[in-house]
Amino acid sequence: MCNKEICKICNHKEVCLPEASDFKAIRRHVWKEYKERNTKFIKTSKGKMIYKRRKETIERSFADSKELHGLNYSRYRGITAVSEQCLLTAAVQNMNMI
């Protein structure tokens, strides 16, 4: 929240505040601070190195799932059946890695 005294003397009060309010409350999402911290970390040299490695390993795994194992579209309906298809695909991928 902002300072009420500052809002009372502000020239932009009519534009900024609702009619029945004396001050403006600014709300942030619970995870906003963590998202900002992660974005800041990705821009560091270590973050860039980790992100590059992630693209080569994790994202490649998802791409293989879609291209080679048919996860573009589900064969079944319902969350239980689709979850089972995803788990079987992941098991097949893990067997291929060994």
Please tell me about this protein's structure.
The chain is mainly alpha-helical and 98 residues long. The protein has two domains: 1-30, no CATH class; 31-97, no CATH class. It contains five helices and no strands. It has helices at residues 4-9, 13-16, 32-42, 45-69, 79-97. The longest helix is centred in the middle third of the chain and has 25 residues, at 45-69. The chain is elongated, with a radius of gyration of 25 Å. The chain starts with a helix and ends with a helix.
Quick structural summary:
This protein has 98 residues and is an all-alpha fold. The protein has five helices and no strands. The protein folds into two domains: 30 residues, no CATH class; 67 residues, no CATH class.
Q: What general outline do the C-alpha atoms trace?
A: elongated
Count of spatially separate domains: 2
Distance between the termini: 55 Å
Radius of gyration: 25 Å
Distinct helical segment count: 5
DSSP strand count: 0
Model regions low in confidence, pLDDT < 50 over at least 5 residues: none
Q: Tell me the quaternary state.
A: single chain
Largest sheet, strands/sense/barrel: none
Helix-strand makeup class: mainly alpha
